[in-house]
Amino acid sequence: MATTTYSFAGKTILVTGGSRGIGRAVVKQLASAGARVVFTYSKDREAAETLLDETGNDSSRVSCVQADFTDRLAVAKMVANLLEEGPVHGVVNNAGILRDTPMYRMADEQWDTVLQVNLTSLHIILKNLIRPLAASRGSVVNLSSVTGIAGAAGQTNYAASKAGVIGLTKALAKEAGPLGIRVNAVAPGFIGTDMLESIPARRKRDLEKDIPLRRLGTPEEAASAVLFLLSEEASYINGAVLVVDGGLL
């Protein structure tokens, strides 16, 4: 596992989609760096509880909340509840879903749900956190994807949502920068998470051949990029998109 020397002591960080994959690695690295972490999960309570156990099972350091990111009001309520507990110093918008199918067969629900979870939820969260983040001189890291840069067949909804994350990041960096808030994005390539579990072994080998480093990335490697952008070591980086793809693009 990648290690970090960053210090987030005394800071409260929200991590959406934190129970699995890259989000899980972010939560663990932030906790080890001294942050108080609140992470969200959608349905997998068991995975969330396992992560709580792995991070010391101390609710004053790491806690979780179930949130339905397909529900605009539920997202707004989650943020309001978080703010009642105290100041927020950082946000990692990681929650995301796939509903892949060719565009000519894509149902409206597949399009709407992916855009709601992957993009609109960021608008809701950040709209409600701008003033608190300005007060704490906070930092935001949004998870995009190389698919949002290069596209991918069968993923028009996902690609559109992740391209939207990049546009949101760059625009909000200009709006929020004067308030002392930095807004950046990480665009992972093929990372060894649950999202790739359904891919046949042969397809994975083909993917690895397209990557100059000849391997998939790890959640920890992507998480390390997130922590860097979130940290004071990146204090003059704003509006950036850090691609973590082994050279794929």
TrEMBL record:
The keyword 4Fe-4S does not apply. One of its GO terms (biological process) is monocarboxylic acid metabolic process. Keywords: Oxidoreductase. Residues 11-189 form the Ketoreductase domain. SUPFAM superfamilies: NAD(P)-binding Rossmann-fold domains (SSF51735). InterPro entries: KR_dom, NAD(P)-bd_dom_sf, Sc_DH/Rdtase_CS, SDR, SDR_fam. GO terms for molecular function: oxidoreductase activity. Belongs to the short-chain dehydrogenases/reductases (SDR) family. This is SDR family NAD(P)-dependent oxidoreductase.
